[in-house]
Specification:
Length: 102
């Protein structure tokens, strides 16, 4: 599959999943929280298929997920849920992107 198309699919998919997971939660400014979550997860999903690192796909995805999720986790102090979803989702996308390219 074309890496640019895969990048968009993964970005939109992971961003949408993040928004769906956050819909039942309450926030002082829910709209802003949902937009920020979508943007962060979109960045993870869209970058992983385009990044080239000398490691297995799942490790590349987990690393990208960790690095992009870390600022959000620090600001919100919600380390475990934000980092866990970012790393796990990144690892899954990295695995899928590696196998979609072959």
């Amino acid at each position: 599959m074309n890496p640019a198309v895969l990048s968009l699919i993964c970005g939109v998919g992971f961003g949408t999943l993040a928004v769906v997971l956050m819909l039942p939660m309450t926030f002082p400014d829910k709209r802003t929280a949902l937009i920020a979550a979508f943007a962060s997860r979109f960045a993870i999903g869209s970058l992983i298929p385009l990044v080239v690192l000398p490691v297995p796909g799942f490790a590349k995805g987990a690393l990208v997920g960790l690095l992009i999720s870390l600022p959000d986790a620090i600001v919100t102090k919600a380390y475990v849920p934000i980092l866990a979803v970012g790393v796990a989702g990144g690892a899954i996308i990295g695995f899928l992107a590696t196998h979609a390219a072959n």
